[in-house]
Amino acid sequence: MIVEVGILELVSSIVGSVLREPWLRVSRLPAGRAQPPSPGRRQSPSYGTPAPRVQPPGRFKALVAGAVLLAGVGTTGAAGQTAAAPLRIVALGDSLVAGYGLPPGDAFPVRLQKALAGGGRTGRPVEIVNAGVSGDTATDGLSRLDWAIGDDVDGVIVELGANDALRGIDPAVTRKALDEVLKRLTARGLPVLLAGMLAPPNLGPAYKAAFDPIFPELAAAHGTLLYPFFLDGVAAERGLNQPDGMHPNGKGVGVIVERILPKVEELIALAAARRDRS
Predict the structure, then answer these.
(1) Which of 56, 78, 100 is the last residue of a domain?
(2) Sign of dihedral through CA atoms 67, 28, 81, 188?
(3) How confident is the model at residue 118 (pLDDT cuts 50, 70, 90)?
(4) What is the pLDDT of residue 244?
(5) Quick one: which of 167, 164, 248 has its CA closest to 212?
(6) Nearest to 113 by CA among 268, 269, 276
(7) Which of 71, 109, 202, 238 is most deeply buried (CB count within 10 A of its CB)?
(8) How far apart are CA 16 and CA 215, in angstroms?
(9) Confidence of residue 187 (pLDDT cuts 50, 70, 90)
(10) Whether residue 24 is found in the same domain as residue 111
(11) What is the pLDDT of residues 222-274, one digit of tens each?
């Protein structure tokens, strides 16, 4: 006990000296805002990182390293602190996730975050990260997957394929890209919720017959959660969409969040169980 008290006092002294450093200035990115574009045509190497970003000098790194080493001697609280950290769920998608045409506070990830305030059914704090890029196809999503989904992610919502259908892309191409997305994520042991899409009727019955089954079939093949149609209750509803008739307005996003929430809570429960096992 005497040793532990002495260590804690020393750590407190080190941290105090660090906090008095004049260079320590914290800045934050706007909460819930989708980040600019990905490899080749995108500027940022990561998405939606709300944590403080600082560039500490070497002295700070040395002080912190010493504090961490000392804190680990004779204490057992680290595992509990990890478990208490917010579960990080990334929403990987296109404009429907990014919040195209909406105020930042109405984007799907932000509204979902608000709906999960208090931890939802699991009672665990959750952070929803906006990894939506307007215009992305399933192949585009695959191209940025490995760097968009970092090692600190606990679960993923995949919403891709809407632009494939709108552009009439061969469903075989869409299937191949989504199959690879799910293969890579599940290989990492990450729980996944696949949000499905339906092809517009004007593309004809043959296209719909090839496109629509992609999502339930891939979810079954990879053992992921499935929300059959991301725009359920919103598609073709004039009062729930922007003037373009394709992108939901604020009310439409509210309907999407309300309907998908039970599946997201299933995803969070799986993510929490995975975190607890690690």
Answers:
(1) 78
(2) negative
(3) confident
(4) 97
(5) 164
(6) 268
(7) 109
(8) 53
(9) very high
(10) no
(11) 999 999 999 999 999 999 999 999 999 999 999 999 999 999 999 999 999 99
Which positions are annotated as active-site residues? 95, 244, 247
**Residue 177: CATH number of its domain:** 3.40.50.1110
State the amino acid at position 54 in one-letter form. V
Measured CA to CA, the distance from residue 189 to residue 193 in angstroms comes to 13
How far apart are alpha carbons 57 and 59 in whole angstroms?
Answer: 5
- Say which amino acid occupies 203: L
Q: In the sheet where 225-227 sits, what is the strand order?
A: 126-132, 87-93, 155-159, 192-195, 225-227
**Other beta carbons within 10 Å of 125:** 14
Name the band, by pLDDT with cuts 50, 70 and 90, for residue 18: very low
Extract the runs of DSSP E, i.e. beta strands, from the chain: 87-93, 126-132, 155-159, 192-195, 225-227
Residues spanned by the domain of 43: 2-78
Query: Which range among 82-91, 133-142, 209-218, 253-262 shows the weakest confidence by mean pLDDT?
Result: 82-91
In the predicted model, is pLDDT for residue 73 greater than 60?
Answer: no
